[in-house]
């Protein structure tokens, strides 16, 4: 079984997976004398072979952290969107999982989270930026908020309406990543918006006339638009959203966060910023 497949089993807080790289010598890991006990390997030290093997299997963003334990090097990385901790032993082998302390509680969770939340967020933001979305607001609005939206979703319409003070003031631009998942004509309505000469105006029409049925569905859906909608739906699922709206934003520290469904009133300033 490949490392990638074995990583798929890292689901619980007490899961641990021993890994080894055939032919790796015992001194493949940084020697204990190269750094203080528990300290991460120096930047100039060669990367342990086990980390190179994991990187080839798709584990990204591997960064060292201090385990506080002699002869045990710790690295935080990402397997897809799953944060993983990798521990490299003096013999060059590795363990992927979560250490458990004598009190039965997981160790290193905060360290791993701190190290991976920015690269994970940046990767999510990059995927959203490259997706097919419809601008709602001014292009130079300083705050960007992505939302997975279905043209027939009443909660998406409520979020659109609630965001008007921020959008109309030029403080926020909403980027609607359209999907068609709620009703039979969701796809054709989304296609009508994406296929319009001015998608932003078409989106506005749908939201303003939502209670009257919204935009008129497209008569047909081109192959190109169907592919875009399918890709958007796959991205929505990949990011963990099962329904709409699925909202992604950067908090005041620049960390990417997500909100499922229509946010309560007191959460709007967290997502959209100060009014």
UniProtKB/TrEMBL annotation:
It is found in: Periplasm. The keyword rRNA-binding does not apply. InterPro entries: DiS-bond_Isoase_DsbC/G (IPR033954), DiS-bond_isomerase_DsbC/G_N_sf (IPR009094), Thiol:disulfide_interchange (IPR051470), Thioredoxin-like_fold (IPR012336), Thioredoxin-like_sf (IPR036249). It comes from the Bacteria. GO terms for cellular component: periplasmic space. CDD domains: DsbA_DsbC_DsbG. Residues 1-25 form the signal peptide. The keyword Ribosomal protein does not apply. Residues 139-272 form the Thioredoxin-like fold domain. Keywords: Periplasm, Redox-active center, Signal. Required for disulfide bond formation in some periplasmic proteins. Acts by transferring its disulfide bond to other proteins and is reduced in the process. Belongs to the thioredoxin family. DsbC subfamily. This is Thiol:disulfide interchange protein. It comes from Pandoraea anhela. The lineage of its organism: Bacteria, Pseudomonadati, Pseudomonadota, Betaproteobacteria, Burkholderiales.
């Amino acid at each position: 079984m490949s490392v990638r497949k074995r990583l798929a089993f890292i689901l619980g807080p007490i899961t641990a997976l021993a890994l080894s790289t055939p032919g790796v010598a015992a001194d493949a890991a940084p020697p204990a004398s190269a750094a203080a006990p528990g300290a991460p390997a120096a930047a100039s030290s060669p990367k342990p072979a086990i980390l190179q093997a994991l990187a080839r299997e798709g584990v990204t963003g591997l960064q060292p952290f201090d385990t506080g334990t002699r002869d045990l090097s710790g690295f935080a990385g990402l397997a897809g969107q799953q944060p993983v901790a990798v521990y490299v032993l003096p013999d060059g082998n590795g363990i992927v999982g979560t250490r458990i302390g004598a009190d039965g509680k997981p160790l290193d969770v905060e360290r791993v989270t701190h190290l991976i939340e920015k690269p994970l967020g940046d990767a999510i933001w990059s995927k959203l930026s490259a997706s097919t979305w419809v601008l709602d607001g001014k292009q130079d609005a300083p705050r960007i908020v992505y939302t997975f939206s279905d043209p027939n979703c009443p909660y998406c319409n409520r979020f659109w309406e609630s965001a008007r003070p921020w959008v109309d003031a030029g403080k926020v631009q909403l980027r609607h990543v359209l999907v068609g998942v709620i009703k039979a004509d969701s796809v054709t309505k989304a296609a009508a918006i994406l296929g319009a000469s001015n998608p932003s105006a078409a989106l506005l029409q749908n939201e303003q006339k939502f209670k009257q049925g919204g935009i008129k569905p497209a008569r047909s859906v081109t192959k190109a638009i169907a592919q875009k909608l399918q890709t958007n739906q796959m991205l929505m699922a990949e990011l963990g959203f099962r329904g709409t709206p699925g909202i992604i934003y950067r908090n005041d520290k620049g960390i990417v966060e997500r909100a499922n469904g229509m946010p309560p009133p007191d959460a709007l300033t967290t997502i959209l910023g100060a009014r």
